[in-house]
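Two quick folds needed for the group meeting slides. Do the first one here.
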Amino acid sequence: MEEVFAIYNEKGKIIGAATRAEAHKKGLWHMVVHCWVVFREEQNTWIYFQQRADSKKDFPGFYDIASTGHVDASELHAAAVVREASEEIGMDVSGERLHYLGETREEFCKEDFLDREIVQIYLYDASETPVFAPGEEVSRMVQVSREEFEKKVLKGEPQITAYTMQGKKVTILEEEWCRHQGEYKKWVLPWLKNHKKEGGEQYELVLQ
């Protein structure tokens, strides 16, 4: 049975429902969730990303935020983020370590595919190195140090170094990433700077 999404107007009010295919063909606004997963050690912060399976219709093999997905018509986005993380990467992100960061919008157009998304952004602050069990939509998980990732998003480096969960070094080119323009800089980075790691030092305060 095809997924059905709630459809929104420009002001973010629900105006109806549509199937996934209809929403993407007509460019109807619908809701998705993004969940960033981080693990903060004393000397380093790791950020985790999924590599989308080659069987995916959209962006096969690309690297993306740890967990992403659509919100069903009858579902709250707080429940959707937990469901999607379980289905995609086999991880339980429920509980007090899951933080809601905010909302943004994304639009992507390619031929007869017009995707308009209202994005609910979350961050899961893991207490230890995460253990993943990727589902069929995810090829593998990789980890990138915060310092290395910021070379890409803040300095425009054309490639950065990641590591598989087995410790193998991987070079990821800029063109291999799914585009989420400004999401890390606007939402994730301020959270990391404003929140103290348990038992650790206070990060620099950022005024917003």
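Then this one, please, same format:
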Amino acid sequence: MLGRFPMTGFLPLHADPGDNIIPLEGWRYFTAWSFEPLPLIMILLTGGLYLYAVHLLHKRGDKWPVLRTVYFVGFGLGSLSFALFSFLGTYDTVLFWLHMLQHMLLNMIAPVFLVAGAPVTLALRTLPKKPRKWLLAVLHSMFGKIMLFPPLTTFLMIASPFALYLTGWYNLTLNSNAAHDFLHVYMVVVGCMFFFPLLGVDPVPLNIPYPIRFILFLLTMPFHAFLGVTIMGSTRLIAEDWYLAFGRTWGPSPLEDQTLAGGLMWATGDITMFAAMITIFIQWVGDSKRESKRVDRAMDRQDALAAKRAAMAEGGAVGYDAQRRQAPATTDADTVGDEEHQ
């Protein structure tokens, strides 16, 4: 199970109620790392494929922005690794505030950087002809349009935390390895689905105007803030039976733990969305400048063409006048002589 094993060296200690959990104190914040084989392999494979695709581009003389590679591999996959394997993943079922920080990394922070890395564009530039056609077909299919439909992805982004913490879903993830693993995957997928069409780095089935993107980002902020404040102010513990069963004598009390978790949801959600809105604004300004330059170039071409046509017309008129001036003049006497000769 992802992140269920506080570790001493490489020996797992199951983080279940009734176990003698090693306190998360001091150096344990730096040494409490646990590695699950499957997610580790998937992250390494994804990073390796991305870097190999960049290598193929460079090999054939094409360029790929270094910053995109840093976003995807360094910050995106790095955030996933930190969320799953560090002390966050190791103690995510012991302390609620650690789970919440992990939640925000998986659902909001890592997806932003993964999308900013433009993996679809990279794939389209490096895949063979047939796989590239398949990828484009999926992107522009009805399935792709539905899965990346911004109102739907925004609804999932807003509703998922409410469903997780205000129903029995979160309790299920604490008691089921499969449900816990599914939650992590679900968070990353929903986050990528939300940011993919709104950041607009890769080709998308529907081109969303920038004002609509702003509105969708703004919609998520009050809902995350409301849920965070609700969790902070609640006197009833979420997953109360689970957390009280640990009987921890270290760290914050269960109620303090929950208050801290609610504050993290509120602050992290607003900060992330605000940063995304700044990114969208910068893209908007950049696109406006490029569009303005494109219009200016088109107008310059039209002016140049009109000037060329005018010059050609003027040149034709001047040539005609010169030709007339060079022709011999015909007098009335010549005309009379011609008539007499006839």
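Slide caption for protein two: Residues 1-14, 335-342 have pLDDT under 50 and may be disordered.
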